[in-house]
């Protein structure tokens, strides 16, 4: 099987497979399982052994992606991997941990002005895909995401892409891998409209929480100002009170999906900050 055959079989770009094979990037367990399936490897012990090797190889850090990630976000990723709780609010976008590939790539393409788009999007998506392995862990952290209805209504990538993204959010919320809620438009103005933020908490009492911001001026990570982090945690809990979850969240998703069914798919790229 040629590299092109393998890339085509997995709907990858040939450059992605080449970078994996020449060792310039690591391979995620998800991608490894896909390759093993394509190559006809069926022995479960062999598969799990290789997957564990892939996991171990990635524990050395995220430094290989410093060409597409900010220094602050690299620090954030190291902390995210060991967090016992992840609390994130996002008024405009579906968070990276919850994105489908087609939604994520559409979002990344919209914010890559002045870059080699294809190469940047491939590598940035590799980061998100690696992060999303946390959703499959049996010992995964508590994960709570609060969106605004605007993030659900905005048709990133077109109506079809957005419908599938919303259906994925509904599935994640329903199977309990993550707690997802959304603040409806009817709630009016709220503090979450000021911008997204993420709070990471840790199992060890001596480990202070991490507060992370992302905006058009750059990324900011804070672990020293515990009073500020406490203020934002209070804000998060207040936003949680405004948000709908469970059946009410699913109803919001269903209404949005129904309205997008049959819509003309038009994708209009616009610059966005969308690391997390």
UniProtKB/TrEMBL annotation:
<dbReference type="InterPro" id="IPR001387">
    <property type="entry name" value="Cro/C1-type_HTH"/>
</dbReference>
<protein>
    <submittedName>
        <fullName>DNA-binding protein</fullName>
    </submittedName>
</protein>
<dbReference type="Pfam" id="PF13560">
    <property type="entry name" value="HTH_31"/>
</dbReference>
<dbReference type="InterPro" id="IPR043917">
    <property type="entry name" value="DUF5753"/>
</dbReference>
<keyword id="KW-0238">DNA-binding</keyword>
<dbReference type="Pfam" id="PF19054">
    <property type="entry name" value="DUF5753"/>
</dbReference>
<dbReference type="GO" id="GO:0003677">
    <property type="term" value="F:DNA binding"/>
</dbReference>
<feature type="domain" description="HTH cro/C1-type">
    <location>
        <begin position="1"/>
        <end position="46"/>
    </location>
</feature>
